[in-house]
Write a structure and sequence with these properties.
This protein is mainly alpha-helical. It has one domain (7-74): Arc Repressor Mutant, subunit A. Helices cover 52% and strands 5% of the residues. The chain has 3 helices and 2 strands, in the order ββααα. It has a two-stranded antiparallel sheet. Helix 1 (27-35) packs across helix 3. It is globular, with a radius of gyration of 13 Å. The protein starts with 6 loop residues before the first strand and ends with a helix.
């Protein structure tokens, strides 16, 4: 797994969903924005508290989770 130091999980924030640096911006929100065709620059403009590395780590987290799920389902 790549370094995912910007992805945090805290039961007190967003019901424990993975968030970006403990903010109330969830990884799933960033992924949904990307999936709906928003560019990195559009996301950063809409959420100025985010940084490009946050978006990259959200994608890395999604890739890690999906590969982990695929391994689990194959077993």
């Amino acid at each position: 797994m790549n370094n995912l130091d910007r992805i945090t999980i805290n039961p007190q924030i967003c019901l424990g969903q993975p968030t970006i640096r403990g903010m109330r911006i969830t990884v799933s929100l960033v992924l949904k924005l990307l999936a709906n065709g928003k560019s990195h620059s559009e996301i950063l403009e809409a959420y100025p508290e985010l940084e490009i590395e946050d978006i990259k780590q959200a994608l890395n987290y999604a890739a890690w989770i999906s590969s982990d799920e695929a391994s689990f389902m194959a077993a």
